Request: fold
Amino acid sequence: MIIELPVTGVFTTNSYFLIDSESNHAFLIDPGAEASKLLNYIRENNLIIEKILITHGHFDHIGAVKEISEALNIPVYVHENGKKYIQNTIWNLSSSCGQDITIEATNYMKNNDLIKLEANSKIKLRVIYVAGHTLDGVVFYSENEKAAFVGDSIYNGEIGISDYYGGDLVTLLTEVKHKILTMPEDTVLYPGHGQTTTVRRVKNTNSYFRMSD
Reply:
């Protein structure tokens, strides 16, 4: 079961829970702000968060990590290129918005890692490295759920911004085309901001990829 819970800091960011309904164990993806809101949801629904998973290290995706991970003693997973983002307020853009956000990771992921829920190994996410928005961007893909948590690599009708530190538009377009748009067309894409979309809809309506064919 996938639950979307938007949180608002400087921006509104989509945080996601991937939950095993039998055990109430879950992954928490991109807790970007409003730690108290997320903690209340966790406690009210008796969730046991096994891991916090980060799609990339920009501050609006990591802003609530420290408070939640410390409150519940949860490990934090970041791509192996993410250290320069999560520990540097310039690279993670928090300083440009008048904030000072840094976090520590307990685990660093690599492309093609498989992250399983300990309570139910059928619930698993494949780590797919997608550069272009940042140097540490990943997509978490669930074949069973027909879902991909795509961070800021692609949105409904748009492409991720590529003019921040480590970004590159050509790289981003190439990565999305070959790593996300090759997924089954009914795969639901859960972005870091805005509404969900599907691989099919992106192929049919997103001008960046119609133009790049």
